[in-house]
Structures are given as C-alpha cells and as structure tokens.
Amino acid sequence: MSEEKIIEAERLKREKDGLDVRADIYRYAVDGFDTIDSGDFMRFKWWGVYQQRPNEGHFMMRIKVPGGRLNNEQFRAITELTTQYGRGFSDITTRQTIQLHWLEIQQFPDIFARLEGVGLTSAGACGDIARNVTSSPAAGFDPDELVDTRPVTDAIQDFFHLNKNFSDLPRKYKIAVEGSPIQSTVPQINDASLVAYRRQSDGVVGYHFFVGGGLSLQPHIAKQLDIFVPADEIEKIVDVQRAISECYRDASQLRKKRTRARLKYLMAEWGPEKFTEEVRKKLDWSPDAAAPGFEFSDETFRDHVGIHEQKQEGLYWIGLCILAGRWTDAQMNVVADVAQKYGNGDIRLTNVQNCLIPNIPAANLEPAKAELAAAGFAWEVPTIRRGAQSCTGIEFCNLALTETKLRIKDVISHLEMVTPEPYERGIKINMNGCPNSCAQHHVGDIGLQGCMATMGDGSKVEAFDIHVGGDLGKDATFTKAIHRKVPAHLVKYALANVIQNFQATRENNERFAA
Ligand code: SF4
C-alpha cells in the first residue's frame, strides 16, 4: 500500500499504538482537556474511553467484564465510580460491559487505579482490537449448558489483554463463547465465535468455530470453519483463535476502507473452505474436522430473567429486568447488597442488558426477592420488556440520530398496555439510534433504526425505520423494513398496530421471521 493511500485511521494507528495512549492520558489528566492531541481522541478508545456528546469535555468509558462475570468487590468498585464520577447511573451494554458517563480527563488515573485494584480493566473495550469476550451469562450454573465456558472465555481474554501483536487490527473484533445449545451470546453475529457441541461419534464436548458475523450497514451471518477442538484443550482452542485473528490482522486489503474493514468481508472473499485452510496453515498441529450433525437451535429467545433453578441442587439465580440496561447507583447498591447477603456475592450481566444474582439457597429466595422488590426491581415481566434492547443513542453517542434510552421505555410501557401477553414466544424489540446496529436491530423480531424525517413544513424530526422479522438460530435471517421514517413520537402507535395485526393473523406460533 503506498503511503499516500493510507486512510486516516490507519495512519494514526501506525503513528502510535492505541494501547500506548495510556501514558498520554495520565499527562492530559494533569495538563487538562485543552491539551489533548486530536489523534489521541481516537486512540483513547483502546482504553475504553470515548468523547461523549455534547463534546464539552466529558467522556464515556466502557469497562470490560469478560462473560459478564463480576464478584462483589468488583461490582461495588464500579458502583462507587458511578456515584463519584458518573452522575449516579451506568449502562449495561449488549457486550456484557458497563458504561459510565460524564467522566472528565483528570479522573482517569484514579479510575484506572481503582478498576485495576479489583482486577478489572477497560483496555480493549473499544478501538480496533479484541473487545470484551462475551459468553453465556449463566456459565457454570446453567442446567442447559453443555460446557462451562468460563475457562475458555478467561483464556481468550488473557491472550488478548495488552497483547501488542493484536492491538492494531483492521477494525473492531468481537468474540463470543457459547456453551449452551440455546444461544444467549448471539454467536452468529460476532466476528469470531466458539460454539459448544457434543460430538455424536464419541460423546466429546468441544467447540466449533464461526467466523465473519456482524451487523451495521451490511449484516452477515458467521460461517463455520471445518474445525472442532475438545473443550478441555484450552491451549489449542486459544491457538485456533490466534490463527483466526492473524488472518484478520494480516489481511491488508481490509485496511483500505473503514466501511469494508470487518472480518466479515474477509470471510465473504475467502469463503469457509479457504478460511479453514488458512487457519490450519498457521497451526503446528492438526485439529479435528468439524463434527457432523451440528446445527443451531431454533430456540433463540433467551434472556435469563426470572427465578431459575441452577444445576447445583438447592441453588437459584434471580434474573432482573433492567430495561435498556440503564440503572442508578442506588439500584446497583441494592443488587450488591442482596448478592452479598443472600447469594455468594457474584453478579452477572447479560447480552440482553439484564442482570443476574446467582447462588441463592432456596431458604434465602423470599427475603432476597422482598428486598429487590422493595427497591423497584422486577423479574416477572412481559417478554416484550425483558427482551428489549437499546443502544446509547443521541444522549451521549456522537454518531446517533435519535434518542433511544428514554424512548424505548415509553414504547415498551405503551405496548404492554395495548398488546396482550402471553406472546407464546417473546417479541424482541431492538432500538438503535443510527444504522450502526449496536443494539442489533437486524436480528430483533422488531428492529428500529434511527433516522431523520422531513415533515410537511420542511422541519426535520427524529424518526425510525421499522423493520420486522429478524431471527438467529437454524433459520437465521435479518429484518426487513416495513415502514420508513416514522416520526419518533408515532413509533409506539405504529408498533402497536404491527403487533396487534401479527397476533390476529399468526398461525401455529408463527414468528415474525416466518
Ligand atoms: Fe451510537 Fe448508532 Fe451505536 Fe446507537 S447504534 S450507540 S447511535 S453508533
């Protein structure tokens, strides 16, 4: 690639590795916001830090939580930061991370120290690097799991942590580890994912590898490599992940255009056979071929909310609905207290922006529920509420066209009033503030994509394109638009019509996707 053709993002990355901006953050914390180099604003992302709207000196920060697993001390540390620096609220994201807002540059040395003091990091939470590794939020206690994903999730997280061999990838890189036949980590729309399967020939449980999923303007479903590795061969599993990542890192054709830089475009160019061949070339051992008979389940609605028996006899988890993932520090403190008092202190975050309190003995269930209910938490809620997801939106996101967090609350409250439960199978609503699909609107039963509409008098208003019929699993398909540029204040009425019409005409538990 000739020097003059290097795009700006690639130039900035070559000039200085994103992870190296940490030292500059400490300097800026002393010298002040006005001294920040413009290129370093982009590099801040490698430490999970973004400028937030309205760009008046505040930042948002994503804290990595591999597999959504936090112990009590870690959760309390985040809660204290939420109170002290984050104006009293935080957001659970669709990658099981926690996002803080309203941070200022001088606060970061203290924030880094306090996170690292409890074994947390924001390194790699954003930027062209391996993001938070997601996995089944009920790993280790899910009665349905084929394998506990925690060892592999941690090994992959450790492999990429501060690893300068992989800190300059063409673009973001999302990895998921799925341990249950019923998906909860959306492996088909991650860049690279591992999906557990019991090989029928010998009963060995291992992982299959999927590559090239992703949404945004051009959604792709990941394709399967012809590789299977037993789940207890963790070093080999990480080695396959290394080889996949090297294929991505070294694909120079992806670095010519930001909009064509995701791993999905390499999979589209190579196809799964060539991709498998290239991965095998990078291994000094020979993995087994994919196990025959695998297919994704067609049961794809999993949100973990409610009271559930764990696989450990006599223990339960309580799954709390945190609509759109936003909660206050007061609510977080209640969750921390209940987890400590009635469980073993642990807290889990889900990909549907909800939260679980595990390891509660039967005798503790009622008092735990009473304290949670008194604080306003709910778990017996309609599927339309507990399955709803929304992105950050215009409140803080510089790319947003529309508000999302408050709006989805209004939409869901209206739909609960006018559309009857049960739906037999949950209706998932995914709301995004722009086409980027951080809340995955392509795979919701209903996907809302933020846009602007021009009214009759020429004024411009926030609006949404309404899409329906997305699904993952065996018959994965993306949503299709049925209404364009619906003014935001009318969206809840339009959706009520869509759902009522669907309920009146559906046959045999038919899905939106059918
Ligand atoms: Fe921002 Fe768009 Fe992502 Fe929402 S979908 S967080 S508006 S980039």
From TrEMBL:
Nitrite/sulphite reductase 4Fe-4S domain: residues covered: 127-285, 389-514
Gene Ontology MF annotations: 4 iron, 4 sulfur cluster binding; heme binding; metal ion binding; oxidoreductase activity
SUPFAM superfamilies named among the record's database cross-references: Nitrite and sulphite reductase 4Fe-4S domain-like (SSF56014), Nitrite/Sulfite reductase N-terminal domain-like (SSF55124)
Gene3D superfamilies to which the protein is assigned, alphabetical: 3.90.480.20, Sulfite Reductase Hemoprotein, domain 1 (3.30.413.10)
Domain named Nitrite/Sulfite reductase ferredoxin-like: residues: 50-116, 308-375
Segments passing through the bilayer: none
Keyword field contains Kinase: no
Superkingdom, taxonomy of origin: Bacteria
Keywords attached to this entry: 4Fe-4S, Heme, Iron, Iron-sulfur, Metal-binding, Oxidoreductase
PANTHER family with a match to the protein in the record: FERREDOXIN--NITRITE REDUCTASE, CHLOROPLASTIC (PTHR32439)
Stated family: Belongs to the nitrite and sulfite reductase 4Fe-4S domain family.
Name of the protein: Ferredoxin--nitrite reductase
Taxonomic source organism: Capsulimonas corticalis
